[in-house]
Amino acid sequence: MDIHMGHFRDKGEEIEYLQQAVRQLQSQLDDSRQLVWQLNSESEEFRESSWQLEKELENSLDQAEKKNRDLRHQCNKLGKDTDVLKDKMEEIKRINDTLSSDLKKYKQMEIEWTKRIQQLEQQNDDLERALRAASDHKMTAQQHLDEAMERDVLREGEKEELLSLLQQLQEENKDLAEEIRIRDRLSSFEKSPRDLRESRTSVETQTQVVHAVQPLRNKVSRALHRTRALGRSLNCMAKGDV
User: Fold this and answer.
1) For residues 83 and 91, what is the distance between their CA atoms, to the nearest angstrom?
2) Does residue 152 fall inside a structural domain?
3) pLDDT in tens, 119-133
4) Is residue 71 part of a domain?
5) Model pTM?
6) How far is residue 98's CA from residue 231's CA, in Å, rounded to a whole number?
7) 17, part of any domain
8) Residue 201 domain-assigned (yes or no)
9) 162-169, Cβ contacts within 8 angstroms, sequence gap of 24 or more
10) Are the beta carbons of 23 and 1 closer than 8 angstroms?
11) Do residues 193 and 156 touch, judged by C-beta distance below 8 A?
């Protein structure tokens, strides 16, 4: 408030004017003080809030720095892990390439083994057919062999009978020959018509025996010939089975 000192009519008017000016100044001073106090209060509040905000910002900054350090640490760790993973990926790729190559080889081997198995199965079928044919042939040969052995046993029995009969006839022939020799010796000393008749009878008997034995000998010879032929046939069959 500006105080303009004008012309007053008297001292009272001047004093009153000054008093009014003083009151106005006092009022302005009070207002100014109030404003200063209010400003101080607001300033204090601002400083307090600024301090708190600063603390909060510092805390936030510390937390942010700590978080940043943690993030950097994690980032470094992730970088190292990434490098490790890259190495592992390269190793896995190399292994995968090797496995792919091996798989191609195994597939090719599988194809070859499949063909080989099919060939072996075909050969096995052929062998089974040949085995069945050989088994049938063996059974037939065994049957023929059994029949031949049965015939051989029968012929062996016939042979034994014929040999026994031949031996018996030979013994009888020997006895007759001995008897003839004895009679011949006796006839050399003395011969009579009766002795001559007996001698002729003995000779005729011996001749009959010889004629009777001859067919038996022929029969035995034929039996032996058939037995030898049968033995040769059996040997050939046995070699064929082997």
Assistant:
1) 12
2) yes
3) 999 999 999 999 899
4) no
5) 0.33
6) 70
7) no
8) yes
9) 162/216, 162/219, 162/220, 162/223, 163/220, 165/216, 166/213, 166/216, 166/217, 166/220, 169/209, 169/212, 169/213, 169/216
10) no
11) no
- In the chain, the number of structural domains is 1
Other CB atoms within 10 A of residue 196 CB: 11
Token pair, residue 219, equals 């029969």
Which range of residues forms the domain containing residue 151?
134-241
pLDDT per residue over 76-135, tens digit each?
Answer: 888 898 899 899 999 999 999 999 999 999 999 999 999 999 999 999 999 999 989 988
DSSP secondary structure of the chain: --------SSHHHHHHHHHHHHHHHHHHHHHHHHHHHHHHHHHHHHHHHHHHHHHHHHHHHHHHHHHHHHHHHHHHHHHHHHHHHHHHHHHHHHHHHHHHHHHHHHHHHHHHHHHHHHHHHHHHHHHHHHHHHHHHHHHHHHHHHHHHHHHHHHHHHHHHHHHHHHHHHHHHHHHHHHHHHHHHHHHHH---HHHHHHHHHHHHHHHHHHHHHHHHHHHHHHHHHHHHHHHHHHHHHHHHH-
Tokens of 158: 């016939």
